[in-house]
């Protein structure tokens, strides 16, 4: 899957993250979509470093990698931006 495909899957994963991780986003839905797309790209990088061949094409493994990366980065973003953390 190319870069634009991973960004697109990351945006969809961010929408799924909104359903899985309910609550308020510190920056709104736009920020959540950007963080989700970044998480998907980081997951692609991690999959490549770990030798994950499933992350190369468009399919279930790549969508799972992107979704996990998106959810992880969204959760970290919410923790970092929570009141009282800075």
TrEMBL record:
Keywords for the protein's UniProt record, in alphabetical order: Membrane, Transmembrane, Transmembrane helix
Protein name listed in UniProt: Putative transglycosylase associated protein
Organism: Rubrobacter xylanophilus (strain DSM 9941 / JCM 11954 / NBRC 16129 / PRD-1)
Transmembrane segments: 27-50, 62-81
Keyword flag Transmembrane helix: yes
């Amino acid at each position: 899957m190319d870069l634009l495909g991973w960004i697109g899957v990351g945006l969809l994963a961010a929408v799924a993250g909104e359903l899985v991780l309910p609550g308020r986003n510190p920056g709104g839905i736009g920020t959540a979509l950007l963080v989700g797309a970044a998480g998907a790209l980081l997951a692609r990088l991690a999959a490549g470093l770990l030798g994950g061949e499933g992350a190369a094409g468009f399919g279930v493994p790549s969508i799972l990698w992107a979704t996990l990366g998106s959810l992880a980065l969204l959760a970290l973003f919410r923790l970092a931006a929570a009141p009282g953390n800075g």
